[in-house]
What we know:
There is one protein chain. The chain has helices at residues 12-24, 35-41, 60-68, 84-93, 105-119, and strands spanning 4-8, 28-32, 48-52, 74-79, 97-100, 128-129. It is of the alpha/beta class. It has one domain: Rossmann fold (3-Layer(aba) Sandwich). The longest helix has 15 residues, at 105-119. The two termini are 20 Å apart.
Amino acid sequence: xxxxxxxxxDHEDTADVTAxxxxxxxxxxxxxxxxxxxxxAGRSAFDLLLTDIxxxxxxxxxxxxxxxxxxxxxxxxxSAYGMPAEVQQCLDAGFDAxxxxxxxxGKLEELINKLTWNATADSPPPAVRAAQGxxx
Length: 136
C-alpha cells in the first residue's frame, strides 16, 4: 500500500537516504527539515508522520502536537535517545511508536506495515515500542 509520508529530519544525508528508501517502496514522501517547514508541509494531507525528535527550532513532539490538532495520521518518533523515560515521553505524547536511530530500514518498513495494517482495523492500534536490537 502506498502511503503519503511526511518525513521530518534535519540531518540532510539521513533525510535523503530515508526518503529515497521509502520512495523505493512506493510511498510518496515529503521532507521537512525543521519545525516550521514541517508545519507548512503538514497542511497537505498525509498518512504517516516520521519525525526526528531533536530538531533545530523545536522538537518533533511539538510538530506532532501541532499537526495532530488538524489531522489524523499514524506516527513514528525517530530518536537517538532510547532511554525508557525518553521512549515513554514520545508514547505519552501520542506517537504510535518510537524507533531508535540509527534507523534499521527493515525495522522501519516492518513497523510501517504493522501500523498500516492496524489502520484498516476498526479500533486504533495500541502504542508500539520499537527499538533497534529489540523486538517491535
